[in-house]
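pipeline/complex-builder :: batch 7 item 3
reading input block
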Amino acid sequence: MRLSTRGESVPASPIRRLVPYADQAKQGGAHVFHLNIGQPDIPTPPEMIEAYRSFSEPVLAYGPSAGLPVLKNEIARYWSLWDVELSPEEVVVTTGGSEAILFALLAICDPGDEVLVPEPFYTNYLGFGSAAGVRIVPIPCSVDNGFRLPSAEKISALITPKTRAFLYCNPGNPTGVVYQKEEVMRLGNLASEHGLFLLSDEVYREFVYDGMAFTSAFHLDGLEDHVVILDSVSKRYSACGARVGYLATRNKAIIEAATRYGQARLCPATIDQLAAAAGFASHEKYIGGVIEEYQERRDVLYNCLTSIPGVETHRPKGAFYTIARLPVKDAEAFAIWMLTDFRVDGQTVMVAPASGFYATPGVGLDEVRIAYVLESEALKRAMDIMGMGLKRFQELNP
Amino acid sequence: MRLSTRGESVPASPIRRLVPYADQAKQGGAHVFHLNIGQPDIPTPPEMIEAYRSFSEPVLAYGPSAGLPVLKNEIARYWSLWDVELSPEEVVVTTGGSEAILFALLAICDPGDEVLVPEPFYTNYLGFGSAAGVRIVPIPCSVDNGFRLPSAEKISALITPKTRAFLYCNPGNPTGVVYQKEEVMRLGNLASEHGLFLLSDEVYREFVYDGMAFTSAFHLDGLEDHVVILDSVSKRYSACGARVGYLATRNKAIIEAATRYGQARLCPATIDQLAAAAGFASHEKYIGGVIEEYQERRDVLYNCLTSIPGVETHRPKGAFYTIARLPVKDAEAFAIWMLTDFRVDGQTVMVAPASGFYATPGVGLDEVRIAYVLESEALKRAMDIMGMGLKRFQELNP
């Protein structure tokens, strides 16, 4: 019984596919520092946990397909903090940011259509591309210039009659790049000129350091019909297990199509939405300390990384990831070897090989993505171990 | 900005698209008996609610992409009650049964492939077909013979080189049919003969009345590579808002493909899975009384329906729906009119027009789906109101 071509070819997540090696390491008694996945150790807002703990209905019922009003109202209130006036009717709540990506692709792309994505990109775009039959076409960027966007000329050379949208993550996973206003406008202008949608994945919106400004796609003028914001509570409120996200757009037709796809899956989980609403309601109280903490970790990581001989990276300006080029030929082999063979006092480190964040074949083979989701002392220790591991790995693989 | 062809054409759910009329009726002060949606009024097992209330981790973290081990173990234990030995590795937990349907279609079908579905069928199959680019091809069945499956000859005449699977719901939503062992084997034999998958949506597995036996696709011999079970806790435990389902199969390649699609969306919601595990753990204690209650409601509904002049239906044997042919030309117009215009002492009834449960154009226009999800007294009252409404509607539309 053969599967579908897409079912056979949908890629395993580079963030998760080495998990069996990590599990084995743990079974063997090792402590694994997880820098492979954006799972923060920061406490979830207690108000969110309390929302679960105080549920007291006798029946756990469906909610509306586009989301609970209490949550949509909180999302609209939240956007007012960004000087954006958003109506609850311009929001469709989704099961994680993941489903927002899928619904957006389904609403605007038919099978065979193309979406342009700055590379390296959030690897799971490939999985949703596979599901929707949409080709993810990379816009090559590089650590060498801090992953800045190429010129409008270079980008527009990639546009074909099949191109339907730009999809970008800002602040960037996996790069930590924060696009300057001029760069967001560059994509916006190209979208306007070529009749493309602008899918802006802003799940790290607050995670911007060094006092930099953040430009949301909602801050662009004249692109109301083009812009779709993709968002999630996972990172903002350290609530990855809640699986609550949303898409927001001024484009009524997209709201309607996403709602119809939403009807097919009935609704997002009810109590998780109540918790998400509590998260947004506690936003102002919660977020400041979190950003401070991540900026400190960013500094720790950057200082540690740049002190390891042969490692090339940039100073990430946002999100909580960076891409680092390692002095090895095969970063995946190194990542696996760390889990299978290398221990320092019974400890090792798990990172995500970066090649899975690229669609261009053969690119990123010597790179890893590192998530700085552990507190500074753990991060320092993990970087020490990785540095020692690199040295040993180079000796073994000269 | 034009949407995709599929985004424009994905159907609104006939279960939900009349909701704005119901909302308006309620705003106008009416009480609406909701027989349009399978949202039971039966209390969720208290053990499930308690799982939410007792969550006490500081961080609401991701779980594994294929589901929490505690839940997969409970699912395996549950299947032992059905004399089926299932390993937790043969289970992929999904966000509702909905996602199980989507992952199964993605794993086995490429865009343009076809899936054969006995008609009328669970309407949301069309939404997932749209998402996956898969054509839902109906196997016509009729209320006139209680929605029994056609002969093997008639079914095989529908198989084309594009056909990849049978997808069927047993016990049946929206029909209430329970396929006899011989019928399940008929599909199984055709699947074997033609190299097709057998996707068996068994979310109503326990809901079988009059002492009838239930045949799971897992009870068929020699079809290990063909069978994929789709399941959910929504109906079994009156926990529609939990959005926890799973697919189960002996076919390792499907488990792997579904897991990779699962990695793209990271994981099902964490606390909801803990609650679902508590639901399965309380199964034996919970389910018996529920089935008794539904059988009683089934009797009430059937007796009421058959006493309304001009209504044709069958005695449903399972699930908690039935299809009824009404003495009207346009059942959707009737359903809307009930919400907009008809009240008895300030009360009215919402049913789902059945045409959206058919893929064959023009079929089912005079039919509705009725969900018997309310307790018997409410159900009787709702049927009285519908009977009076039908009489008045016929007078107005002779």
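note: DSSP finds 13 helices and 13 strands in chain B.
queue -> next item
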